[in-house]
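Inverse folding, one chain.
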């Protein structure tokens, strides 16, 4: 498998972002990303997809997606990330329930992810709460497990702590919101194939403090934080018509994990099911539970490794490898936690491997 790292939630000047596509792509290349998916609000900008290079030779593939919501709804809620639909999906959202939009995306062959499904408002900073109300919807591909800007916003309950979080984001970033992890585990326990991704939600916003102006979370900084690592069958070619569908196929399968880059480079993490010397399943796969099977977590650096079964920790170890022989069917996923800036922080969160019993069937229904 070939691992590529990208960010699938960011904004440009075409909605509420500060920079144009080329400048955002340059920031991503400097941060070491392989691909980006631009998700401006209720607009799918076409004609700018392609391979962007910076003078030192690094390059990044830029693709076009969309963040869609019903602009007629008050208060604003239920933002949806859309990839690979091939056309703008915002018209299907206006004045319609979210299920109608999800059905339209599925009909267009696209993927859909619930953006920042759990949030908290920060009224003193003029920041609203844009989580998901309608969690009984069906047919979505997955959820945004960790959104950097959304999780930071949840740490702005008052001006004092808010200013600290704005100027020292790496000190307040701990991990995905616990409520979002619980939501994901609940959906997985229901037998639903729900893929987790992690993103920046970058805007490059300029904040003003009297006469002072400061970009609080620059694109390049955010692209070094929470990203989605995707496992492909072949390297990127540089052609968006080829690479875009390959990335989206892997995402739909759940062949991906969420990594936080500041505590250490997550590249090289793996989580798989093994039978003898053969890998029988990777992240996102479903496979029958058999005797002699093992689940293996391999981290690129020492960390606290956790194996979760149906949302409950069943094994932990400190180091770079954890091997566990499962005896029960269910949903297994891996977490790694690593010390950084004085405390343990969430580092890597895998998509699950489902071990099925004779009568089990897996699907997002």
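Residues assigned per position:
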């Amino acid at each position: 498998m070939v691992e590529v790292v990208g960010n699938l939630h960011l904004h440009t000047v075409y909605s509420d972002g500060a920079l144009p596509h080329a400048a955002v792509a340059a920031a991503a290349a400097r941060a070491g990303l392989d691909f980006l998916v631009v998700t401006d609000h209720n607009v799918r900008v076409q004609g700018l997809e392609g391979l962007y290079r910076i003078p030192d030779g690094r390059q990044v593939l830029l693709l076009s997606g969309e963040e869609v919501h019903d602009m007629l709804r008050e208060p604003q809620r239920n933002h949806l990330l859309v990839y690979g639909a091939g056309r703008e999906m915002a018209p299907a959202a206006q004045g319609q329930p979210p299920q109608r939009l999800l059905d339209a995306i599925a009909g267009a062959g696209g993927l859909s992810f619930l953006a920042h499904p759990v949030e908290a408002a920060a009224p003193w900073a003029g920041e609203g709460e844009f989580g998901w109300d309608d969690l009984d919807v069906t047919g979505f591909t997955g959820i945004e497990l960790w959104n950097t800007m959304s999780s930071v916003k949840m740490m702005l309950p008052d001006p004092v702590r808010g200013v600290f979080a704005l100027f020292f984001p790496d000190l307040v970033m701990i991990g995905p919101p616990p409520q979002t992890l619980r939501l994901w585990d609940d959906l997985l326990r229901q037998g639903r194939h729900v893929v987790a991704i992690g993103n920046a939600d970058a805007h490059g916003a300029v904040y003003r403090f009297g006469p002072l102006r400061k970009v609080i979370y620059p694109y390049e900084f955010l692209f070094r934080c929470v990203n989605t690592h995707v496992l492909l069958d072949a390297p990127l070619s540089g052609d968006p018509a080829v690479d875009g569908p390959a990335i989206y196929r892997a995402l739909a399968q759940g062949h991906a994990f969420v990594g936080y880059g500041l505590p250490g480079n997550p590249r090289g993490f793996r989580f798989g099911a093994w039978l003898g010397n053969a890998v029988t399943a990777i992240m996102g796969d479903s496979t029958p539970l058999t005797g002699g099977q093992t689940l293996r977590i391999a981290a690129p650096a020492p960390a606290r490794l956790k194996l979760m079964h149906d949302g409950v920790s069943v094994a932990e170890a400190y180091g770079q490898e954890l091997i566990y022989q499962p005896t029960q069917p269910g949903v297994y996923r891996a977490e790694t936690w690593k010390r950084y800036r004085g405390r343990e922080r969430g580092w890597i969160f895998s998509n699950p491997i489902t071990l099925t019993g004779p009568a089990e069937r897996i699907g997002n229904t």
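Helices lie at 21-30, 98-107, 148-153, 159-167, 169-172, 178-189, 219-222, 240-253. The two ends are 29 Å apart (CA to CA).
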